[in-house]
Specification:
The protein is of the alpha/beta class and 695 residues long. Helix content is 33%, strand content 14%. Among the domains are: 66 residues, no CATH class; 69 residues, no CATH class; 106 residues, no CATH class. The radius of gyration is 40 Å and the shape is elongated.
Amino acid sequence: MGKWRYGVVLDAGSSGTRVHIYRWLNSDTARKQATDAQLHTLPVIETDKKWTKKIHPGISTFGEHPHQVGPEHLDKLLSHALKKIPIEDVPNTPLFLLATAGMRILPLPQQRALLKEVCEFAQSTTKFQLPDCQVHVQVIPGETEGLYGWIAANYLLGGFDRPNHHNHGKGHSTYGFLDMGGASAQIAFAPNATEAEKHANDLTLLRLRTIDGTPLEYKVFVTTWLGFGVNQARQRYVKSLIESSTSVELPDPCLPADLTVDVTKDGKFLDLDSDNRDEPKLKAAAQLVGTGKFAECLHQTYPLLEKEKECTDSPCLINGQHVPAIDFDVNHFVGVSEYWHTTHDIFEMGHKDKAYDFKTYQERVDEFCSQDWKSIKKGLKKEKWGGKVDEEKARDVCFKASWIINMLHDGIGVPRVGIEDLKGSKNTTKAVLDNAKAKGFLDPFQAVNKINNVEVSWTLGKMVLYASSEIPIPSEQALAVGFGSNVPGIPSDFQYPGGSHIPYESENDWHRLFVENPRRVPGFFIMIFIIIFIFCIVLGKEKRASARKSIGKLFARKHGKDPLHRRRRGFLPSKLFGLGSSLGQTYERVDLEDGEAANEFELEETYLDSSDNEFSDSSDGSRLGRTSGWATPQIKPETGTASYVGGAGNDLLNQGVGLNLGPQSAFDRNGLLSRTDSRERIRSRASSPKRGKRS
């Protein structure tokens, strides 16, 4: 068992797949090294920016060619992970591929085929721990993604480990979580006590475990809004512009002034200023002409919230979906992904990690979006907003900003800091210059990307949950780590972090020797050999002979009717007990000097080819006919005839040839005749000298 435990999570999104590598101390080491205060905290998860790698496009693009996803997509990501994780720790490292919105839109048969290929490729090309494909490789719902993000945010902010340092009031110590991608948006928070009791059936029960085994339990509300990510919202917006006008040119207040784009039939658009002539332009159904009026942009994107939809389970926020009432006195939210990029990539240049201020933010957006497109392009060339801001980001940011503002304040209901009075809030317009971290993230909303130099990613939340589940249960009454419906005990839909848990060190001694500690295998066999050798010496000569006969019968092997296969020899027991060439031989010895016995003995016909080295005892060429007897036939490669070697055997050979009784065939490896022409020839040798014994 190594000091460190590793985990790999592949975030398979709509635009690409990113591999995240994490590590933490194994529970035994963590308990030994922890102080009294640290024993009551969750495992410390470490990562590094070099451990992360993203490739494009997403795996959903392989929907029609699933067999290509392994070699053309996963191979690069898995190779990167194998370079960062010590080779001896790979078999104990769990691997997860969790797909989000991009895979959710694929037909179910394509989803299944892709996930099957992913799992089989990972199992066949790596030794990562992947015991249950349905748990380790899956498309996760938006609610699960939001819950993992909530865990990650509170883990990094200290809401779990140091609740006294994060007292938001009314006994509340956790933060709310907001996430927005291209296709969907999520919200996750722990309602106040009143709302939690009122909407208990709508909450998710989450269980964690600290290093010393203390259980932590939280009740969290999580929901997702499909189609409310920035890209899907943009398509709905463009579609509404087309449907509301019969004109070919459509004024768009969400585009910088004098910027014109072509619109495709599916609501996407192409930039007419593109200099890439290699890409064919699609036939436009209409043209959007930017006017650069941000206030009007806010007004036209508001209907996309669909607040007018019927609410069947009150209260609701947007799209008619139920959400318990949010108490912003205690529910303080952090926003990631587009919440961060849209508020910081351009408008917070030089003010990163500063508190979000609605009034200041809206003023900066309005200033940027009122410029004409030529002025913006000049600023891009001078890197006025940083080197990472290109024309595509500059073109899209005005719509994204309007959508973020509407979602936050008119959709979710976050107070407009800098305009609306907040109870107990010290925020003012000047607060944008204050460091949000120093303030403890106690504003109603704050966009974040990293906390303590660690990216706030839902993949981190997944690994926090998994590492917590590996901590031994302190008692039989303790409940498992995971999440499910808000009911006592273990609900039927309870999800374990790793499916059927596989301990990182097996309790099976043989598995521990041969799989987890393969370096001990040579020493194990050497020890066994020494024990057997000493045992043979202690037995003595007579007992060794008796044991030799018993083992000879036990290990005798018969492979068909071919006598050459039946007489194979030289396996381990023969070497250990001093067995000669006859070990395992089931033939009875026939005394060829006894004429009667010779008459009753008939040998099978076996033709030996001098060019066949299959049964050679040496790599130096064929030595067919080698035995312990003096009359061993030896085939000469030049003539193809057999000759007898040894003493009087040479004379017999010469006489036999002269009498037209020369060797017509060879002996097999144990000195027995392989072929005979007649019984008379065997009788003629009955008077020959006895064979000498092997030295």
